[in-house]
Amino acid sequence: MGGDEEGTLERLKAHRRQLIDPKIAEHRGRIVKTTGDGLLAEFASVVDAVRCAAEVQREMLDHEPDLLDERRIRFRIGINLGDVIAEGDDIFGDGVNVAARLEGLAAPGGTCISGTVRDHIGDRLPYAFDDMGEQSVKNITRPVRVYALSLEDRLASSEPIATPRHRVTGIAIGLAAVVALVISAGAWWLWPATKSSPPPAMAASTSIAQPLTTPRLSIVVLPFANLSSDAEQQYFADGITEDVTTDLSRIADSFVISRNTAFTYRNKSVDTKQIGRELGVHYVLEGSVRRSGNKVRVNAKLIDAETDAHLWAEQFDGDIADLFALQNEITSRIAIALNLELTSREATRSTEQPDALDYLLRGRAAYWDWRGPPPSRDRLAETTSLFEHALALDPRSVDAESWVAYMLFFRVGSGWSESPAADLQRADELVGQALEASPRDWFAHHVKGMLLLRSQGRCEEAISEYETALALNPNWLPSLNQLAFCKIMTGSIEDAIPLVEQAIRLSPRDPLIRPFYANMGIAHLLQSHTDEAILCFEKARGTGFGWPYSFLAAIYGLRGEIEKAAANLAEARRQYPDGRYSSIARRKATGLYSIPGYWGVPKVAALFEATYFAGLRKAGMPEE
To answer: Are 137 and 15 members of one domain?
Structure first.
């Protein structure tokens, strides 16, 4: 534009007239509007949209052959599939906004598509895409999975592939494949002055149309069948399907096929192996919903798409008094169970050359196998080593940074750190780097909360971190449990018990469930509900998790049952021979308990004195 404004505009109009507008029409698209040097187009078929973009970019390579390469006009294209709002001939909404942001991420002459588009087209087009990972884009709350269509892949094949035609209905809110085509600053040579260099993943590939690869934690949730006699209950089955799909997408490193693609298999006889090949997934989840009177039963089963073997099955029953709450509970329970199941199975999948993801999966599986606090120093060291390997292989991995920080926290808390201050400083630095790179990473927020609470006694700040983690991933039960503990320590004791009850209800067989009962027991004790507290601490106690015995000793001491109190105190001392239960002073000054403010605000500290410490004294624990 700076060198030849009129000539550039004429060339732009020529490209529109000779190539872009005819291609959009050829692929049954509609130009919604133009925006100066760009335009917005709508397609009824996402396959048509991607093919149109690929052909436009391919043919642009042959346009203006008499011009130097740095003087040629280049387009950037973004494609998204999503809900749009129709008003007259115009469309807008997040479906359009994401397409525009994807255009901005594309290199000159390049095309970026959303993960939803990639899932939907599967292997129906002869193009390969480079995975750019999740990208945070302006004015869009959640990160967007982005794939780039590389130059060489566009040249790989021009053979037409037959696709069905679809019709967009004229309703106010519809589903459309939205394509935004925008010219970058007029010419390629202006690009460096206005945008940073494109990410490495967008560079042209030297290979052609690669076969669809299968990600490790990949799954499709097929539409749950409605087995009720009432056809109107289909909405409930569909809601279960959609919510499970969303919840599974929160599992770190997971690849979950979109709802739109999954629902194309509704009411069809399915071959699990064929679905696995078509969608490039390792696992298929299918299920059914049956309503009888006021009761609803949901069945779900996980199938290995490679072998057609049934790996996991579960049945969930509930009362429809609050249908929305029941749907949330069932979908959360399925997601929590599958998180454990998928992580465990993928961790055992053999690989010749383990990569960062492989070590992350192994480390997470080892963590879930702890069954409570780490039973030994060696086991904690082995788990930590797996995450350290992942971080060494990928120093920029947010997951690896967060998990290493988590393990360092556990090492300090267990009293096995040779340099606690250095470990905590490194943990804080790692989780800070993770949050800087990915501010909406729920697990990094959880780890930050643990460090604030357990290492610094900053309960109020920790509450904010846990609430953020739960807003991003409501199914991370440790955040629910730690939030409950923070509520206790800041004086909102009555708010803690419902949080723990929710966690236990969602995952009654959670391998880390004993600390949940312990926190509930503390809340009951501070409210002088000793019968309820005893039941909780009896469920919490066990080998390798001995501190609930000290609370049982205190409760029985308060009740005057001195023999039971002494027996429980002896067991606590046996499991912790380091002297932490030798006296009241030692109990207050060892490990995490020495953190200023650990025993809560003055009101809570007074309650601990009147219940826990008073009971320990009656159980026979000396002051010094």
So the answer is: yes
